[in-house]
UniProtKB/TrEMBL annotation:
Residue ranges annotated for the NADP-dependent oxidoreductase domain, each copy included: 34-310
Organism: Caenorhabditis nigoni
UniProt keyword list: NADP, Oxidoreductase
GO molecular function: oxidoreductase activity, acting on the CH-OH group of donors, NAD or NADP as acceptor
Protein name: NADP-dependent oxidoreductase domain-containing protein
Alphabetized InterPro entries for the sequence: AKR (IPR020471), Aldo/ket_reductase_CS (IPR018170), NAD(P)_OxRdtase_dom_sf (IPR036812), NADP_OxRdtase_dom (IPR023210)
Domain of life where this protein originates: Eukaryota
UniProt-annotated site: Lowers pKa of active site Tyr, residues: K96
Binding site for substrate: H129
């Protein structure tokens, strides 16, 4: 498997734990290997949690209009950079085009809004959040009388072209997609003018997605892995009886062997695969702990044992009326509806 060279750079001397390891993207820009995830951070605490992550040393923040907390987070980052006198290129800002903004005009509008709210000339990365689009100008979650999402028939290639234009105009340094299946990603890769630098995908030991990793490795598309812990506390898409990585005996024994937590082992596994790890926590102690993974490495045997836990078990399956959309990425599974 491809293992990108990690680059290290020490940062400001007054800051104790500011290690920022990075990977080089196909766009020519670097991305810190650990990103702070912001899904399910309530609006009321979002500003403070992101500040905490920045203070502790995270230099890559993963945001999305669809997470419904960007107003607070954008403001927090903007203010923090001013107060702490950080240069724009010291922080990697990643965001997404939401389902209600798939037309060229709306996607462009959403990018311009981000730049304005963050008071920045460019975003480091923007991905298309989902391949399927919803009705525009009808709120963030447009729903019909049957409670199901109202679809738009806009092809994600149009959204991609808006991203390409923004990239060419210097508004977005790297562009990519999230939650696309391999044929959708391949369509972008082969038909697009600009190659996708990133695929954001669910990867964890119960869902190793080797075919996706191999496809991306062969084309120099970096995977930013999400749901590394399987997001065990979430009630979105999860059922109570679903397997929980944090209780897995193999992972617990490897964690004990290194004197680390299971979450730290999961993050380290992603990094040792040569991928970028997104991790979210609402707890300050965990935010710090999750970043403290640079001083140990898994052995090849441990990586193999973790790889072999695969159950092809996908959690992020928001069928929720989206299944009939022509661009829904995954096959229907009645028990996940
Ligand atoms: N593009 C997409 O569609 C998409 C989808 C999903 C995720 N993402 C991105 O990827 C990020 C990460 O994914 P995720 O948030 O779904 O899953 P995740 O980071 O795997 O899981 C977060 C969960 O793990 C818990 N956790 C974190 N650190 C822990 C620790 N040290 N010990 C025990 N539990 C811990 C958190 O609980 P506490 O908060 O209570 O600590 C939270 O319940 C998201 O935040 C988002 O930015 C993108």
């Amino acid at each position: 498997m491809h293992r990108p060279k990690l680059r290290t750079r020490s940062s400001k001397p007054e800051e104790p734990m500011r290690i920022a390891e990075k990977v080089l993207l196909s766009s020519g820009y670097e991305m810190p290997v650990i990103g702070y995830g912001t899904w399910q951070i309530p609006k009321s605490t979002a500003a403070e949690q992101v500040r905490e992550a920045l203070e502790f040393g995270y230099r890559h923040i993963d945001m999305a209009h669809g997470f419904n907390n960007t107003t607070e987070i954008f403001e927090s980052i903007r203010d923090w950079m001013k107060v702490r006198k950080f240069q724009r290129d010291e922080i990697f800002l990643s965001a997404k085009i939401w389902n209600t903004h798939h037309s060229r005009a709306k996607a462009t509008e959403q990018i311009d809004e981000m730049l304005q709210m963050l008071d920045t000339p460019y975003m480091d990365l923007i991905v298309i959040h989902w391949p399927y689009g919803w009705a525009e100008d009808d709120g963030m979650f447009p729903r019909g009388n049957d409670g199901k999402p109202i679809f738009s028939n806009i092809d994600y290639m149009e959204t991609w072209e808006a991203l390409e234009e923004a990239h060419q105009a210097g508004k977005v340094r790297s562009i990519g997609v999230a939650n696309f299946n391999l044929s959708q990603l391949d369509r972008i890769y082969t038909k697009g003018t600009v190659k996708p630098s990133v695929l954001q995908a669910e990867i964890n030991p119960y869902f190793t997605q080797k075919d996706v990793i191999d496809y991306c490795t062969a084309r120099n598309i970096m995977i930013t892995a999400m749901m590394i812990t399987g997001n065990p506390g979430s009630t979105f898409y999860r059922k109570y009886e679903d397997p929980n990585l944090l209780f897995d005996e193999t992972l617990i024994s490897i964690a004990k062997n290194h004197g680390k937590t299971v979450t730290q082992v999961l993050i380290r596994w992603i990094l040792d695969l040569g991928l970028v790890a997104l991790i979210k926590s609402n707890e300050n102690k965990r935010i710090r702990q999750n970043f403290n993974v640079f001083k140990f490495k898994l052995t090849p045997d441990q990586i193999e044992r973790i790889d072999s836990l695969n159950k092809n078990f996908r959690i992020l399956w928001p069928i929720l009326g989206n299944y009939n959309h022509p661009h829904f990425p995954w096959p229907f599974k009645a028990d996940r509806n």
